[in-house]
Design a protein that fits this description.
By secondary structure, the protein is an alpha+beta fold. The protein has helices at about 1-15, 115, 135-145, 160-170; strands spanning about 20-25, 30-40, 45-55, 60, 70-75, 80-85, 90-95, 100-110, 120-130. The strands form two sheets. Strands 1, 3, 4, 7 and 9 form a five-stranded antiparallel sheet that branches. Strands 2-8-5-6 form a four-stranded antiparallel sheet, with no helix packed on it.
């Protein structure tokens, strides 16, 4: 019995080490950037959540409606590949087109929250790259809804010239 308890405890600690997300604090005018090494043609998904600090309770509020994030992503050549405003909680996606270090920057879209939040915002961020970025259950669900029954009009038939080429390719060499 003691062996099972130790095994369970080890699994809990091991699982805690595998956490991929992080959180950080930032002020009203701050911009936080992360460098991520990304192969070419790779999907990246960033999931985030913002929380305002409440000076009265001394804690971060569970959600922050009205506060949004601006996300900007630059490729290794410093070309902007994503620049968009988002809500206080959500996700952003992009696909890399060249391998190397990509710069992912976040900053608040508001200058009003510092007056009533003590100037502190907590951002939870989880960046998933490549295979880990794919939500296979979501993809399968979308795939099922996007499928339409095949009709005769959707079948591609060769044109007259394609049919002639097909016949010519069936002719033995030297016969033409």
């Amino acid at each position: 019995m003691a062996v099972l308890a130790w095994f369970a405890l080890i699994l809990v600690f091991f699982r805690l080490d595998l956490a991929h997300g992080l959180y950080f604090h930032m002020g009203e005018t701050e911009k936080k950037c992360f460098i991520e090494e990304i192969p070419d043609e790779t999907m990246v998904i960033g999931k985030y959540k913002t929380q305002l600090f409440d000076e009265h309770t001394g804690q971060f509020l569970p959600s922050s409606p009205g506060i949004g994030m601006h996300v900007e992503v630059k490729d290794p050549n410093m070309k902007v590949i994503l620049s968009k405003y988002y809500a206080s909680e959500g996700r952003f996606t992009f696909t890399s087109h060249s391998p190397g270090e990509h710069l992912i920057c976040l900053h608040s879209n508001s200058t009003r929250w510092s007056l009533w939040a003590g100037g502190k915002l907590r951002i939870h961020l989880d960046i998933q790259v490549g295979e880990h970025a794919n939500d296979y259950q979501e993809i399968a669900a979308k795939d099922k809804t996007n499928r339409a029954p095949a009709s005769d009009s959707s079948i591609v038939r060769p044109s007259g010239t394609d049919q002639q080429r097909a016949k010519l390719s069936e002719v033995p060499r030297g016969a033409v």
